[in-house]
Structure formats: C-alpha cells, structure tokens
Design goal:
Length: 213
C-alpha cells in the first residue's frame, strides 16, 4: 500500500509539473513576442519562433489527409473503451464492475474534452492556414491524449492476449509519432500549438497513471 501511495504521489507530481509547464506556455503566448507570423500574418505569441518553425516546414496540405485518418482511429479507440465501460456497468450492475484503469482513462478523456471545448469558445489564436482555435485543437490534442493512455489498457480489451496487446501498443506509438510529425510538417499548426498539446497530453497521461494506481 505504501508503494502504491508513493507511486500515486510521484505520478501526480509529474502531472502537476507538466500542467504548470502548459500554463506557463499559455501565459507566455499571451504576453511574449506577440505579433504577425505565417503566410496570413496571423497574430500569435512567440511570433519569431513560430515564424521560424513555419519557414522550415512550410505548407504541405497533402499530409493532412493522413492526419485525419489518424484522428479517426484515435476516436474509434476511445469509443471502444467507452463501450467496454458501459457494457461492464450494465452487465456487472455498477461502476465497480469497470476496471480501475478504464475509469481513470475515461476521466482523463472527459477532462480533455472539457478543456478543448473551453479553448474552442475562447478561440485563442488562428493557425498559419487560417485554422480557427488552433491552440488545443481536437485534431492535435485528442490523439496525443487518447493513444498513450490506451496503451496501458489494451489488455482489458483483448483479455490479456500478449501478442495483440504488443501490436496495439506499437500501433498506438506509431499514431502518436505520426500525429506530431504530420501536424508539424503540414503547416496547419504553429510550433507552440504542438508544444502545448504535447505538454497537456503528458499531464493527462500522468494524471491517468496517478488515478489508476
């Protein structure tokens, strides 16, 4: 029990550090080097950094279709876990029938959805290609939140089939990498959008870990 509490505390500290880093980046974007950048000269924080990053990768819209497929896959994974939770709840007659890890995962998904909705309402900034509310956009955030946490719960979906779990985890890792790479080189998002989504997803991952332990 002591080890579990210690792990829970460590994971929660990691989550807090990541979340605070995300808040600091958000604050920085509002107050440091705010100016025009990108092809449409949209106003963005850390404009010099974002302009430089965008000038390296430019605009490669052809890759967006691959990223959209990845986004759809991550949505399907999230729905699978939601369906599993509902099934366990109904058949097992209560929330105790739902594995603790799946509950933790769904809590993190819900929190992420709330944050995304809030930022959609705020519409903090516009992306290089005119994409509205590019900071904390669901296309970028959801795959980075869903796939890392799902890697820890695939054994529940496939009933501890080690080969299938290993394959699913590898597939998830590929999706995470593809999301970051394609969203970067497509020119849809600012560099700071990707950095912010990454920090937020790390915070959500460790929050999931701290709840699960």
């Amino acid at each position: 029990m002591t080890d579990e509490r210690q792990k829970k505390r460590i994971y929660f500290v990691y989550a807090c550090v990541s979340f605070i880093s995300w808040i600091i980046l958000l604050f920085t974007l509002q107050h440091l080097d705010v100016g025009p950048a990108g092809p449409a000269q949209e106003t963005v924080g850390l404009a010099g950094l974002n302009e430089y990053a965008w000038s390296i990768f430019g605009e490669n819209v052809i890759y967006v279709h691959f990223a959209d497929i990845v986004f759809t896959v991550s949505e399907i994974v999230a729905m699978l876990f939601l369906c599993l939770a509902i099934r366990r709840f109904v058949i097992g007659q209560g929330i105790k029938a739902i594995p603790k890890g799946v509950c933790a995962l769904l809590i993190v998904y819900l929190l992420s959805a709330i944050v995304i909705i809030i930022f959609k309402k705020i519409d903090l900034e516009t992306g290089p290609q005119g994409l509205t509310h590019s900071y904390m956009h669901p296309w970028l955030v959801l795959p980075l939140v869903i796939m890392p946490t799902a890697m820890g719960e695939y054994h529940v979906l496939v009933k501890d089939d080690e080969n299938t779990v290993f394959a699913a985890q590898g597939f998830s890792l590929i999706i995470i990498i593809v999301t970051i790479v394609i969203r970067t080189i497509s020119g849809q998002f600012w560099f700071t959008d990707i950095a912010g989504a990454s920090l937020f997803s790390i915070a959500m991952f460790y929050l999931y870990k701290s709840i699960k332990v």
